[in-house]
Design a protein that fits this description.
Hydrolase_4, 277 residues, AB_hydrolase_fold, Serine aminopeptidase S33 domain-containing protein, 10 strands, 34% helix
Length: 277
């Protein structure tokens, strides 16, 4: 069962239905604002949990509430390793909330890293809603600053998965984390949409998230991981990003791996362990 994100077929259906329905995203049509709002909703659809929802995991964790400058409360879960070497800030994909993503925490705590997982606005127990790319980047910086009050910056690793990769790269570009890990990254949002539906005009898409620019601005070591069978975000995205990596950065293509089951791949764990040592 696919718990961690959309299947490639569903992704394509969403994009096609939103971008082609009634010609909303074809140049010259009259309702771009409506289409932008619908596309925003599908890029970050949210997955709300009740305010009093009680997280339950068979391993230790702490709930954290992080207040943004505009007084919105963001929900985070901190999973602690038995003997910590640092902390991973995990920025998840577009679907589900921390009640689901938290199931991945042992993958990283077993490697002796604490993990702070964040729900974006409109996800889980986080308040507010996502309205702009600038707002997203500001929220990520707020969370990063919060984390720096608990850990030295040279102990912080930023990890983004799928939709979270552009946010992770943007955050690393403006700070000095120990490392940056991008799992199934896109080149830009427009490039991703164009690959799914080549006939669609993407010039008016509100969210740019130019990962290729962010990696050029990042001084920290970078690891890109992509499955060669990923049908949601095509692996060519990582191959294009490789052009902008530093000589010491790494790209690992996992043979036969798709978009959502990386944590079950022994080669993935081996790559992580080597990079994080």
């Amino acid at each position: 069962m696919n718990l961690w994100g959309m299947t490639s077929q569903l992704l394509k259906r969403v994009v096609v239905s939103l971008l082609l329905s009634h010609g909303l995203w074809i140049v010259g049509q009259a309702q771009p604002h409506t289409a932008q709002n619908e596309l925003n909703q599908q890029l970050f659809p949210g997955a709300k949990l009740p305010p009093r929802y009680r997280f339950v995991f068979p391993y230790p964790f702490q709930e954290h509430t992080i207040l943004t400058p505009d007084q919105v409360k963001l929900s985070g879960l901190l999973f602690k390793a038995k003997a910590t070497r640092g902390v991973i800030l995990y920025l998840h994909g577009s679907n589900n909330a921390l009640n689901v993503w938290g199931k991945l925490a042992p993958t990283y705590t077993h490697l002796q890293y604490d993990v702070l997982m964040l729900d974006y606005r409109g996800y889980g127990k986080s308040g507010g809603k996502i309205t702009s790319e600038a707002q997203l980047h500001q929220d990520m910086q707020t969370v990063y600053d919060y984390l720096k009050r608990m850990y030295a910056e040279n102990k912080i690793i930023i990890l983004g998965h799928s939709m979270g990769t552009g946010l992770a790269a943007g955050l690393a570009a403006k700070n000095h984390p120990k490392q940056l890990i991008l799992q199934a990254p896109y080149y830009t949002i427009s490039d991703w949409v164009h690959h799914l539906v080549p006939s669609v005009d993407t010039t008016q898409i509100r969210y740019k998230l130019p990962t290729y620019q962010f990696v050029q601005q990042t001084t920290s070591p970078i690891l890109l991981i992509h499955g060669d069978a990923d049908q949601a975000i095509y692996p060519g995205s990582s191959l294009k990003l490789k052009t902008y990596l530093k000589p010491t950065d790494q790209l690992v293509i996992l043979k036969g791996e798709g978009h959502t089951e990386l944590v079950n791949n022994k080669a993935y764990i081996k790559v992580l362990r080597s990079f994080l040592r």
